[in-house]
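Hi, here's the filled form for the chain we discussed.

Project: internal
Contact: R.S.
Residues: 333
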Amino acid sequence: MMQNRRFVLIVALICFLVMIPLAAKGVKEAVAEAESQQLTVEMAVMQGPSGFGSVGLQENDGKINENTTIKIQVYPSPNEVIARLANGELDIAALPTNVAANLYAKGVPVKVAAITGEGMLMFLTTDSSISDLSDLEQRKINIPGAGGTPDQMTRILVSALGFDPEVDVELDYSIASPAQLAQMLIAQKIELAVLPEPFVSMATQANASVFPLLDMQALWSALTGTGNYPMTVVVVSDKFVAKNGNRLPVIMDAIRDSVLWVNENPVEAGVKIEEAGIMKAAMATPAIPRCNLVFKTATEGYEAMDTYLKILYGFDYSSIGGSVPDESFYLAY
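And the returned structure, exactly as it came back:
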């Protein structure tokens, strides 16, 4: 009886050991089959510098390898992108960092995969009598719209300089368009403004009387010790990760290569940026070197993002959806 039991156990063990490589082989075959299927990735970017880094993906009609194509759609503002992410129409999107945090806080199933753009804001002035930051007191600062990154960073940094943004300076949002605000500077109808690229380059090149007063990135770096702040991130839907997570490294490598190509080839990139409907080449090309286009994985950029979002929360918690995202907001791949 004992010998029979021992025989049965030996047979069972042999069968188990045989099944392990068979099961592993089955998994490998399933993965290989999934990777061999044609996949079109729906990606959204916005008009403006946040979309610049994506245009290298348009080579070969978006085909990044024999089985994967990235289809890029360009939108004028985050609102349409947010709606399409929320209803599952998009797989990937480039968004302002605080907008991504807001989505996450509201339960939209997305994760941050990478940083693709860092800060590029400047205080510009047409008043040569302003020579020191203390000269900002009781001055009007024009900002392109309330609640966006230029507004948030102005309030944070003005406060860090010792001013009360509600009392010691006047923040004027009456000109919401950065292009129009740049034109007002060029015409010297306003004296002080905060602008992002490419409008900084546009204003300073058009009129020598417009000059930078303060590099907001340098001040942020000095205050926080974290280097530049993450202005644009790439988010990926949870649904896409669940179904196609095995392809994510290839897709992110393609985005990295695209950003690198844009930085190294501003003239050619400017043409593609215009063809994509993101911005006119005449504005994009000279601004690319100053747009701080980067590629950092969420893991590489975690500290900078976490610091940035914590500071935004402390200054205005509603700007990131009421809470600082936890570590599950950051996608490792």
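Let me know if anything looks off before we file it.
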